[in-house]
Amino acid sequence: MPKLRFRVKPYAHKKYKFLVRGKVLGKWRRRYFVTETEAIAFAEQENAKTGSKNSDAGSPPNEMALRTASPTGGPRSTAAIDFATLVTPTYFGPRIRRYLGDSWCMHLPFAYDLMRELAPKVFVELGVKQGESYFCFCQSAAENKINVRCFGVDSWRGDIQTGDLDPQIQQEVAEYNWQYSSFSEFKAMLFEEALEDFPDASIDLLHIDGTHTYDDVKADFESWLPKLSPNGIILLHDVILRDRGFGVWKLWEEIAREDNSFLFEFGYGLGVWKKQPVGSSDSFFVRRLLGANEIEGRTISEYYANAASALALWQSVEGQSGAGDQVARLKAEIEEKARHAAQLQRELDERSQQVAQFRTEVEEAARLAVQLQRENEQQSKLLEPLKNQLKTSHEELLDARWEALTLRGTLARKADLVDVPSSRLLELENRVETTTSERDQLRAMLVSLQSDLEQERLAGQAQQSEFRATQAQLIQMTKDLRSNQKQMDRLRESISGRLILPFGKSQRKLRQLTGSRTAND
Ligand SMILES: C[S@@+](CC[C@H](N)C(=O)[O-])C[C@H]1O[C@@H](n2cnc3c(N)ncnc32)[C@H](O)[C@@H]1O
């Protein structure tokens, strides 16, 4: 076996992760690559020139030259066309793992590149079926470490073009997805049902590949368009088919413009359509694609058609080669391992979720503990006076209890002494109570009476003082009367002395007369 000249080595760089190194005529030659696929392809190409083989590289067994530089300027444009060295075919495009040779297979190299170059945050595919296109996007996302969430929507019931689908397909596709389950999930439902799961302007790359009649594809396009982000891109498959009810071509004619669309006319036609006209905020890849003139467009189409053909050839030769069985076995083994890895990944995700949840709970508990501690301190402060009060009350209660005990003891001793039966005591108590109540009633009555009495006393006082005043008036009047009487008497005396006295004799005589007459009568 000839000695290897060019070897692939891991390389620690922000962008370039692989280095291909080889000595040519005593001098080291190095080249740096983003992906391992490109590095291996380059090493193989170089070794093929010298007849050496790179067993480390794990290259496709049958090689076909595809030595064109990527016209869209992706990182694969390292190899230059060198027809003079074209001795064996070499395919150094991405090795698509889920290659089914179905209707989408001719666009797989482009899908792989688009995912890497566009690096969408959200990718949605409407119509997954067996996942040939979907898993190519996922493979690229995984290998190129794209931070994307992928969603595949399908009822897995089939449609008028595919016919009814074997129920096994959905199960097999779900199992295959395990290896990408950290960023990819399926929604087994109708497209319109999935609409509400996606906010407006949230999808950066949307692949519409459901039912291909004009009405259906137009309905899918119009209902999902609001979900597309401002710089978002829509892919439409089967654009060039015009028979058997296919009507995507008609929609394409309605929406395609010069500054926002590109059509790959091979492989049933893949339309690339951007919501906004292509501009400076788009990646170089998208600008080259959607801004391509006719000649550039043809170059791009040829490039991807060649890549897809080379891939198809490699796949078919691989299938037919003597190593086919071994390859199939290895493939199955790899898929089993991928499934196992996916299972482990899911368990890991679950554990991480549990740990995260536990951590959240612990943090919450710690926060609550601090809060409780604080509240506790505040309440302790508030409780301090209450505690003192309680202490005092408690002491008072103890005193009272002690007193009660003492009294009870005294009572018991007295009860012992007098030997009063408890019924008697009860009777006495009742009597005391009755008496107390009667006493209280009496006291109330007394108070009432006292009040009446007081009122009457006051009234009496008032009458007495009135009486005294009247009495004083009477005394005064009596005095006045006596004085008047005296004056009268004196006056009478004085009158009788001056007036009556001269008639004394006559009067006496008269009296005598009057008296004699009376006696005669
Ligand atoms: C052409 S196939 C998809 C091919 C796939 N992209 C591939 O790479 O092979 C169309 C798929 O769309 C699904 N489909 C069609 N109309 C649908 C709808 N309205 N809702 C959900 N799934 C639908 C079908 O079940 C079918 O699996």
From the alpha-carbon coordinates, what is the Rg to the nearest angstrom?
A: 62 Å
Distance between the termini: 210 Å
Q: In terms of per-residue confidence, which ranges show pLDDT below 50 for 5 or more consecutive residues?
A: 52-69, 75-82, 498-503, 516-521
Order of helices and strands: EEEHHEHEEEHEHEHEHEEHHHHH
Q: Tell me the domain tally.
A: 3
Outline type: elongated
Count of helical stretches: 12
**Would you give the CATH topology of the largest domain?**
Rossmann fold
User: For the residues shown, what is the average pLDDT?
Assistant: 76
Physical arrangement of strands within the biggest beta sheet: 8-5-4-9-10-12-11
Let me know the largest β-sheet. 7 strands, mixed
List the helices and strands and how they pair.
Layout: E1 6-10, E2 18-24, E3 27-33, H1 36-50, H2 108-118, E4 122-126, H3 132-143, E5 149-154, E6 158-159, E7 163-164, H4 167-176, E8 184-188, H5 191-194, E9 203-208, H6 214-224, E10 228-237, H7 248-255, E11 261-264, E12 270-274, H8 284-290, H9 294-320, H10 324-418, H11 422-500, H12 504-520
Parallel strand pairs: 4-5, 4-9, 5-8, 9-10
Antiparallel strand pairs: 1-2, 2-3, 6-7, 10-12, 11-12
The site of S-adenosylmethionine has 21 residues, from helix 3 and strand 6.
Could you explain the architecture of this structure?
This protein is α/β, with parallel strands linked by helices and 521 residues long. The protein has three domains: 1-52, no CATH class; 80-86 and 94-321, Rossmann fold; 335-411 and 421-520, Helix Hairpins (Orthogonal Bundle), CATH 1.10.287. The chain has helices spanning 36-50, 108-118, 132-143, 167-176, 191-194, 214-224, 248-255, 284-290, 294-320, 324-418, 422-500, 504-520, and strands at 6-10, 18-24, 27-33, 122-126, 149-154, 158-159, 163-164, 184-188, 203-208, 228-237, 261-264, 270-274. The chain has a seven-stranded mixed sheet with strand order 8-5-4-9-10-12-11, covered by helices on one side. β11 (261-264) and β12 form a beta hairpin. The longest helix has 95 residues, at 324-418. The N and C termini lie far apart (210 Å). The model is unreliable at 52-69, 75-82, 498-503 and 516-521 (pLDDT under 50). The protein binds S-adenosylmethionine. Residues 102, 104, 127-130, 132-133, 154-159, 162, 165, 190-191, 209-211 line the site of S-adenosylmethionine (SAM).
